Amino acid sequence: MERKAHRKLLNNELNRVSLEEFRTIEKIPLIIVLDNIRSQHNIGAAFRSADSFAAQAIYLCGITATPPSAEIRKSALGAEESVPWEYFKETLQAISRLKEKGYTVLSMEQTENSISLEKFTPNANEKYAIVFGNEVKGVSQMVIDQSDGTLEIPQFGTKHSLNVSVSIGVALWDFTIKSKITIK
Fold first, then answer.
1. For residues 167 and 165, what is the distance between their CA atoms, to the nearest angstrom?
2. What is the full DSSP assignment across 20-74?
3. 130 and 120 in contact (C-beta within 8 Å)?
4. What CA–CA distance (Å, rounded) separates 123 from 125?
5. What CATH superfamily classification does 28-178 receive?
6. Is the link from the previous residue into 122 a cis peptide, with omega within 30 of 0?
7. Residue 112 CA to chain centroid, in angstroms?
8. CB 144 within 8 A of CB 92
9. pTM of the prediction?
10. Residue 43: how many other CB atoms lie within 10 Å
């Protein structure tokens, strides 16, 4: 393998879109649903990942904190201003709304008959919402029961779960790569 120089790019060389431009670009057909997330750092990281991969929106449910919040902003780095969000007192209300709007709702959870993420292929004609659960309890069984299916990120070590913010990043990356939308 030939060794090449790798100069780190400056911020002004990254060709980032402005907040106004971001609001007008095509988004991937995906809404992130946060089911009772405790950590505001995880919430902020969800916003940052949603911005990075141009997700449509985030639904914040239950005990999940909402912007404005200094703790959310710390890890969101302003993405709470670029990604549309909505708050629901109960996650089941969010799922009901999504289904009324024609979304396929999937929960990211280890369940019987879950689909391993690498085997999931989004249908180009469908809109999706993925529910991510509480850091300790995961996605509630009531929410799983109302979901159209479950996805699971395969893991090979001694731990049985990933941090929710890591799971969101992995799932968004996977969904973005598999969807046929090219964001410019």
1. 5
2. HHHHHS--EEEEEEEES---HHHHHHHHHHHHHTTEEEEEEETT---SS-HHHHH
3. no
4. 5
5. SPOUT methyltransferase, trefoil knot domain (3.40.1280.10)
6. no
7. 22
8. no
9. 0.93
10. 27
Give yes or no for a contact between 139 and 35, defined as CB atoms under 8 angstroms apart: yes
Q: How many residues does the chain have?
A: 184
- Find tokens 């907040």 and name the residue: 19
Per-residue DSSP letter, 138: B
Residue 134's CB is within 10 A of a number of other CB atoms, namely: 19
Among 111, 161, 151, smallest CA distance to 129 is for: 151
pLDDT in tens, the chain (184 residues): 788 888 999 988 898 899 999 999 989 999 999 999 999 999 999 999 999 999 999 999 999 999 999 999 999 999 999 999 999 999 999 999 999 999 999 999 999 999 999 999 999 899 999 999 999 999 999 999 999 999 999 999 998 889 999 999 999 999 999 986 555 4
Q: Where are the domains of the chain?
A: 28-178
DSSP-derived letter for residue 11 is: G
